[in-house]
Amino acid sequence: MGRVRLSRFNIASLAFGLAFLYLPIVILVIYSFNGSRLVTVWGGWSTRWYAEFFNDQAMLAAAWMSFRVALASATAATVIGTLAAVALARGGHFRGRTLFSGMLYAPLVMPEVITGLSLLLLFVALNAERGFWTVTIAHTTLTMCFVAVVVQSRLGALDRSLEEAAMDLGCTPLRAFVAVTLPLIAPAIAAGWMLAFTLSLDDLVIASFTTGPGSATLPIRIYSEVRLGVKPEINAICTLIIAAVTLLIIVASLASKLSNARADSAAPM
Question: Which positions, given as ranges, span the membrane (predicted)?
Answer without folding.
Answer: 12-33, 69-91, 103-126, 132-151, 172-195, 234-255
